Amino acid sequence: MVRARILDVSGLEPPQPMILVLELLRSLAPDEYVVFRHRHEPRPLYPILGELGFAWRVREGRAAPIEVVIWPAAWDRGPEDQQDPRG
Amino acid sequence: MKPLPLALDDLPPFRVPLRFFLTAPLFGVLAGIVVIVEGETVFASRWSPALIGATHLLTLGWLAMVMIGALFQVVPVLSGRGIPAAARVAAPVHLALTLGTLGLAYGLVASSPNLVALGLGGLLAAFLLFGGLLAWRVLRPSRGGGALVTIRFAVLALFATVALGAWMAAGIAWPSLGIPYRASTDSHARFGLFGWVLLLVMGVSQQVVPMFHVTPPFPAAIARGCGVTVFGGLILLATSDARLAVVIGASATASASLAWAIALLAVLAKRKRRRTDATVRAWQLACWVLIGTAPIAWQIAVVPDLPISFVARHQQALLLGVLVVLGFCVTVVLGMLQKIVPFLAFTHLQRRALKNPAAIPLLPAMEDFVSTRTATIQIAIHATAIALTIAAAFEPAVARAAGAALCVDFAFCAVNLTRAALRYRRVVASVAERE
Q1: What pLDDT digit, counting tens, does each position of B74-123 carry?
Q2: Number of domains, chain B
Q3: Interface confidence (ipTM) of the complex
Q4: What is the band of B10 on the pLDDT scale with cuts at 50, 70, 90?
Q5: Minimal Cα distance from A66: which residue of B?
Q6: CA-to-CA distance for B428 and B435, rounded, in angstroms?
Q7: Cα–Cα distance between B416 and B428 in angstroms, integer?
Q8: Cis? peptide before A15, omega within 30° of 0
Q9: Hey, is the C-beta of B273 within 8 angstroms of any chain A C-beta?
């Protein structure tokens, strides 16, 4: 079972979104992943995610225009393919 | 239209824009010194050598200097690819622009043809090198929306400004050529201020205002229509003296300027966070100045002898120049610097700290580079300098006070930006110690 941590930065000014998501990623438990809600695609984040060992997928969101789902690259499957009571 | 997300990963090293940002306020201080030294004669006429010299210290030394530095940073974001060889060409462009501006401005103030010729050489080198690389990047097809289209018009206006300026400077440097350079003054100033500066500001604001201030995007009609309307109006004004062409050209330029300023104020009013920082205040100040200026610019072009005009004819060009250069252009650039320098300093340090998590506690907040209080004081000083310089356009006895205000305005900026840069260097050194 994996658990989602939701982070909505759609109302925040730069550089707060980047600061908050990096803090959250550092504090992530082994069974947790992040749903990062943003008003546009956070392109500068993607190369950083790769360097930090995370995989990600971008999808359209309901609560914010963009949702980036971020999980440890070591996982066999993405969280959307796993059971998630809150996802 | 949605703004494209900024691609910060393509950013050039911080030193590339920083050298331009740190030099620019020194030219503003020099402009203030020229006004103090020359006093009342500066505002005696639009043709006063000291006024033309001080104006070019601001337009080249402050505006072009910051705008070129910022373009090294913004172009990769807008077009997806950076200015070619940015890290290598920044230093020669900066040197040529610095020496060229000093030569031209001092040559104009001291009426020295040789210095004007020297300045012309430096400026041509700077603009041809940078303008060529910029055109190579932004005039070619690439991703980018209304912002990039508007910036393309700005680049074309830059070439028109530089060509007309070079023509006029050649007329001053080599009088035997008999170039009737004064005839090109209005077109040169229009292409420079309403073309290059206003169009660039229109394009860049579509990108940075929604991003930095969390506002909705600009309405699509404004994002796509204002730039082309302003540029079309400028072309018409530059190429025809026919009454109809003047009326249409001036109306197009003035109405698109008004529409953009009103749209920007409306977009800012809808920002999600109600906090009003110094950059927002600067945008608002610049918009209100533009809203006041556009009708005056229209009236001067279309009905210069309007009997109810509150400004005597010889003061019209002076007032318009002060409003556009100091009230609008300088304000926008000053406001954006208060945001961009701390943001870039923070972003570059954050990238460094990623590779070394032990350095994360060393990172200062954006606020620690230029505090909100300092930036707000900066905009207040600047508003005072604008008011005094407008007063000097009507009453030359106020000139020295206006010059002193300009010196304080730009010296305050120089000190704050230098402190931010020194703080950045100290943190880089501490991060390096932990690597």
Answers
A1: 888 777 778 888 989 999 999 999 999 999 999 999 999 999 999 999 99
A2: 1
A3: 0.79
A4: low
A5: B5
A6: 11
A7: 18
A8: yes
A9: yes
